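Notes taken during the Thursday session

The instructor put the following on the board and asked us to keep it in front of us for the whole hour. The protein is MPN domain-containing protein. We were told not to look anything up and to reason only from what is written here. First, the residues (266 in total):
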Amino acid sequence: MISEKYLRKVILTADVYAICVQHALTTEKQEIMGLLIGEVDEDRCISHISACVILHRSDKQPDRVEISPEQLCTASMHAEQLANKLNRPMRVLGWYHSHPHITVWPSHVDTGTQAMYQTMDPLFVGLIFSVFQSDPRLRSNQVQLTCFQAFQGTSELERREVELVIKSSPLQNYNLEGKYGLYFLCGISNLPRILIQEEVDCHDVKDNNTQDELASLHNDAFKTLALVHIVSKVARPLCDDLEERLKAVNARIKALESLKKHLQKN
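Then, after some discussion, the predicted structure tokens were revealed:
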């Protein structure tokens, strides 16, 4: 039975949105998933999401993803550690996953999964990123995002869209001895590492199930190809993006220093 209590609004920081989108764009063949962490205003039923955890997929599927109890436990521990570092109450507030090449709307499986989590936390929320959806008119791919909860309709479970606001990350978060900034960098840098570990685990299972040397060589070749793809299509672009971000930050620092000197002279 789903509680009548439900979310009114979700506020998502731009940094978390960037991590989720980059994660969703890493593959167009399987769905990806992760968990959302932040603070919640219980009285106003508003979630403030300011962090996320990228989950390791033990089973890659093009049409569904699942979160194991172990991963929920790990994410809860991560939220506690983050709360201690930032000296703020943090907890797991929701989950996100991707819909490659299909619409952004949640399936019956997604709605059922969301309903299950709401039995534990009525303010738990789900985000879905639709990626690799091409628009013939614009000749470009689109990224769409929906924020939803589940509720019991007259005959079956239905979805309820929740207002979503994407805001820039508060500057004060970056002044806590750089802890928030370091967390964002760790979230980005861990993405290629997690994808590589998924590929290694997947191919190790195949190697353990075969005794044929030729098949083993074939699997090794595909593993190498997959790892090269991750490095060239994920890790290197992320490095380039972070370098450009560093240049922009340094330019901003110089501009502010120049403005400070000007104001001090006057």
